[in-house]
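Continuing from yesterday's entry. The apo prediction looked reasonable, so today I'm repeating it with thiamine diphosphate included to see how the binding region is handled. Same sequence as before; SMILES copied from the compound registry.
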Amino acid sequence: MKRMNYGQAIRSALLHSMEQDSSIFIMGIGVDDHKAVFGTTAGLVGRFGRNRVFDTPISESGMTGIAIGAALAGMKPIHIHIRSDFLYLAMDQIANIAAKWSSMFGGNASVPLVIRSIVGRSWGQGAQHSQSLQSLFMHIPGLKVLMPTTPSEAQGLLIAAIQDPNPVLIFEHRLLYDIIGDVPDTPTALPLGRAIIRRKGSDMTLVAGSYMAVESLKAAEFLSKHGVEAEIVDPVSLVPLDENRILASVAKTGRVIVIDSSWTTCGMSAEIAALIVEKGFHFLKAPIRRLGMQPVVCPVSKPLEAAFYPNAKLIAAEALTMLGRDFPKTPAPELLNTFKGPF
Amino acid sequence: MKAPFYSSLSSGMRDWKLYRLMLKIRMSEQKIIDIYPSDKIQSPIHLSIGQEAVAAGVCLALKSSDRIYGTYRGHGIYIAKGGDLGKMFSELYGKETGCSRGKGGSMHLSAPEVGLVGCSAIVGSFIPVATGDALAAQMRKDSRVVCSFFGDGAVDEGVFFESVNFAILKNLPIVYVCENNGYAIHSKVLDRHKQPSLARLVSGLGLIGKRHDGNDAPVVFKTMSQAITQARKGKGPVFLEYMTNRWHEHVGPGTDYQESYHSPKDKENNSRNDPIKKMEKILKKRKGFSLRADILKKEIQNEIDQAVNFAEKSPFPSLQSLYHDLYAESR
Ligand SMILES: Cc1ncc(C[n+]2csc(CCOP(=O)(O)OP(=O)(O)O)c2C)c(N)n1
Ligand SMILES: [Mg+2]
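Holo prediction written out below.
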C-alpha cells in the first residue's frame, strides 16, 4: 500500500494505464500546463510526449466529437474538463453520438471514451463553475457514470473506465482532492457497479456519494455520540448502480436518507429513492428523505452559499428528525466545513 | 443625421477622460488585490490590470444606451461603462447591495442601467447573446449598437463563428471586441490557431476584421468610434482585435511570470506597454499635468474608499433571498 491524495491517485492511474497501452491519450484545456489539472497530469507530457498529452483549443463540442472519432478508430482518449459545467457544451456529442453509437449501429462498434470532469465547488464559484452534473448523464442510456470518493477508488475506477469499451464519465469533486488514503502498490481496476459501505450501522441508512459521503461520515460520527448508528452506503458507480447493496442496507435499517452533491429534482437521489420504493418498499419504517443543493442557482454570497449546499449538520438534523428526536443543544464543531480556499 | 456624439469631445477632454477611466480601473483592482488576503472577497477574481485601454477606449466611444456584454474578466468594462463602484465592491463582498445582489460575484457583474447587460464565466457564451441583442435593436429600429467583449480564447468556440456568420447575414449593429492578451489561461494563441491574426479568422465569412494596438487608449477610442458609426448606420457588424497584455495570473491576485508558459520577455514587455504610462506620455505635454493628475488620483482614491466602505457596511443578503429571482414575476 502507498499513501497519496486523490489527485496523485488519479495521476498514478493515468501513468500506469498509459504505460500499458499506447492507444491511450489525454486531451483537454490545460492538461499540459504547470497546474496540470490539480496535479493529475503532472509530468505526463515529459513522460509520453505532446502527441499523447495535449492542450486543446476551447472547443468542447468539437473536441468531444474528435475524441469520439479517435475512439472509433482504435484509440482510447481521455478528455478532461476542469469544471463539469463545461460538459453542457459537449452535450450533443456525448448524448447524441457517444451514448448512441453502439446501439444505433447494432453493436457494430463502440466508443471507448473516458471523460473526467471536476465539480468546482470550493468557494465563490457561483452559477457557472460549481455544478455537479452526474444526474443529467445517468438519465441517458449508453453512458456509464462514476463518482469516486477516496483516492483508491479514484485510481481503481479510472483504470476500469479506461479499460471499458464504452463512454464513461467520471465526476471528481474538488473538495475530495485534499483527501489522503491508501492505494495499492500496483494500480488495479476496481469493478464498476459495486457500492462501498463506508460505515456500518443499524439505525438508518445514509446513501451518499462523492463529497456528500464525507459530510455524511462527519454526521454519522456525531450521531453515534448521541446513540444513533448510521450506515453509509456510497454508490461510487451510479451507472451501473449496485442496487443490491443499497437494498440490503435498507432491509437492515428500514430508514433511508439519500444525499447528493447536486439538486434533488430528477436527480441521483430521486433515482435511488425510486429504486428503494420499487424494490424495497416493504423494508421501510418511515418515508425516505432526500437532501441536496437547494433548488436554485448557486450564489456567491457566503451566507447564501452556505445555505445552498447540504452539509453534515443538515444531515445529522434530518436523521434526528426522522427518529423523532431533537437536535442536541451541545455545540458540534465537528460538523463544520473546514475548506479555507481559495479554490 | 446628427454628428456622432464623440466628435463633440475635444481630444484634450477625451484624453483626460480615458486617463481617468484607466486610473479608476487600475486603482480599483489594486484595492481588490489589497483586500483579497483578508478573505472578505470570496469570489475568484480575474484582473484586467494591463488591459485598461480597451475597456476605457471602447466604452467611452459608446453611448450609455448602447449595450455591452462581457466575461468573468469584467471589472474594467463595468467601471468604464459607468457602473456604480460601491455596487461593484459590494458584489465582490457578496453583499445585498451588490450589482447582482451578491449572487453573481466578481465573474457576473451587471449594470443594465448603464448598458452592461451582464458577464458570463462560460467562454464565448455571450457572443450569440450579444448578437441576439443586436437583432432586437434592428427589429425594433433602435439606433443603439451592441458590443460584445471576449478574449482571444473565445474565438476557439464554434458558437463564435455561428454568431458572427448570422450577424453578417443580417447586417446586425454589433461590434465584436476581441481583447487579445496573448493567452487563454496558459495557452498561447499559436497553440490554438494556425492563423495568429484573429481579425483575419472572420474575413472569409465576410466580416471586416481589424487588429489594433489595444494598449493605446486614443487608438482604441478612434477605431471603436469608426466601428460604431458603421454599425449604427446599418452597414453591418465589425470585428476589432485589440492587442493587449494581462499582467496578473489568469485568476487570482498574484503574478506568475516565473511560470513556464510565459515568454521571458513578457514582464518587461508589459511594463513597456503600460496603457496608463502611454497616456501619461501624451498628457504630460500639456500644461499643469502633474497637479491635475494628483488631484485626479486623490479624487479616485476617495471614490474607491467610499465604495469599499459602502461594501463593508452593507448587510449580507437575507437567507430567504436565496430563493428570490429564480424566476421573474409575471408581468
Ligand atoms: C466553455 C468554457 N471552457 C473552458 C473554460 C475555462 N476557461 C476559463 S477562462 C479560459 C480562457 C479564456 O481565455 P480568453 O478568452 O483569452 O480570455 P482571458 O482570460 O485571456 O481574458 C478558459 C479556458 C470556460 N470558462 N468555459
Ligand atoms: Mg486571453
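Comparison notes:
- The CA atoms of residues 27 and 54 of chain A lie 5 Å apart.
- The mean pLDDT of chain A is 96.
Will overlay with the apo model tomorrow.
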